[in-house]
Amino acid sequence: MQTIRLILLFVHLLGFAALFGGLLAQAKEPVKRVNAAMRDGAGTSFVAGLALVGVLSAGDQEPNNTKIAVKLLIGLVVLGLVMANLRKEQISQRLWLAILGLTTANVAIAVFWSSAHHWR
Q1: Distances in whole angstroms, Cα of residue 20 to Cα of each of 17, 51, 76
Q2: Collapsing DSSP states into helix, strand and coil, what is residue 114?
Q3: How many CB atoms lie within 10 A of CB 17?
Q4: Sequence-ordered alpha helix ranges (H) in the chain
């Protein structure tokens, strides 16, 4: 079970990296758009996150359901924004910043809202 959890966590992180990389690749571009890295990253991180919660729940660890609900909501909003704007020629700077901010917030929640990183 531990191996499956680690593989899912790795895939989840790769999805976030692809989404974040797809956003940052356009940072200096005057025209922003939803690219393939953003689409694939948002989908991968969302699905892998759901599977990760399932594996954690099936094992001996009880995930923090409040944290999971917050991350699920943010991930769903990011995925919805990315998919809704996938076929558009360009997106506004505000929308691009919103997706970037939500993605950053989701990663920050994963890192800072965790007992795994506390010193004992």
Answers
A1: 5, 21, 16
A2: coil
A3: 15
A4: 2-24, 36-58, 65-84, 93-112
